[in-house]
């Protein structure tokens, strides 16, 4: 086999170039601390790294969603707590005004305080968050939840937007629903009506009919006024009945006392549910952080460079380059003309 000088030079140059490229690759790994810097370093590894990073970013987004959801639930919790305080005060007044100790004039004077508490409760029922969205409008956060009853005979009473007593053009669809925020991974992306059985999502708004109504399971319930009309069974309307009776010098009545107590009980149940949602957010956050730690460790095993191994490889590649260069220098001198001189 004939070995030409050009072949010797070409082979030597290829060997030197290969060792130089290997040395440069090791240098880059040592400078970045990563053994996978581009797809050519490890095509399978870079794909796994991208998938792991994407999953970790999703977990971070779920954590941000949880923070937002919790802030909304804290607002709702505070609003309901303030309502409980106001309604309890109204009930205290109702108990007092139900005795013979107070006369008609004193009941009319007490009606003024009841009216102020009613206005306070009504403002909470129509409260907005910092984004200008109503807290208790279900999934219709831009629509006023409680409005004046459209029936002239029910002047002074209010009704929820989704209640049958509301005007037809004021009843948006699905007004008893709520808005949800996704806070974790789930098997499917289908939203179930009852979020309590879907750990990956949390409800951040509630229908006012369920919060301020007298019946948690019947948002369309009604109460009968002294005029024989039916109105939305919410706490404001119960207090309105009490207010009108006090203005007439009458006692609040056992029905008002019972309804106020039922309303307080319903509010307390809603507070418990909201507390449970907050706990679910924290549970999902802890689970996400634990999962992310495992993913981080797995990504490090694929991506991060072992420093000792990297330095060892660098030394080996450096020695190989020097040897290739020395061999080329010696091979250059192997010429027939050198022997003919």
Could you explain how this protein is built, in words?
The chain is mostly helical and 341 residues long. The protein has one domain (49-297): f41 fragment of flagellin, N-terminal domain (Up-down Bundle), CATH 1.20.1330. Helices cover 60% and strands 5% of the residues. The chain has helices at 5-32, 43-97, 104-125, 208-212, 235-247, 254-303, 307-332, 336-340, and strands at residues 146-148, 158-160, 180-182, 201-203, 222-224, 230-232. The strands form 3 sheets. It has a two-stranded antiparallel ribbon with strand order 1-2. Helix 1 (5-32) runs antiparallel to helix 7, helix 3 packs antiparallel against helix 5 (235-247) and helix 5 runs antiparallel to helix 6 (254-303). The model has no long low-confidence stretch (mean pLDDT 80).
Count every helix, treating DSSP H or I runs of 4 or more residues as helices: 8
Shape descriptor: rod-shaped
At CATH level 3, the topology is f41 fragment of flagellin, N-terminal domain
CATH class placement: Mainly Alpha
Q: What CATH architecture label applies?
A: Up-down Bundle
- Topology order in helix (H) and strand (E) letters: HHHEEEEHEEHHHH
Count of folded domains: 1
Class based on secondary structure composition and strand pairing:
mainly alpha
Overall mean pLDDT = 80
Could you tell me how far the N terminus lies from the C terminus, measured between alpha carbons in angstroms?
Answer: 25 Å
Spatial order of strands in the largest sheet: 1-2
Rg calculated over all Cα atoms = 38 Å
Give a quick account of the main beta sheet: strands, pairing sense, barrel closure.
2 strands, antiparallel
Number of strands: 6
- Output the CATH homologous superfamily: f41 fragment of flagellin, N-terminal domain
Low-confidence stretches: none
Strand content: 5-15%
Helix content: 55-70%
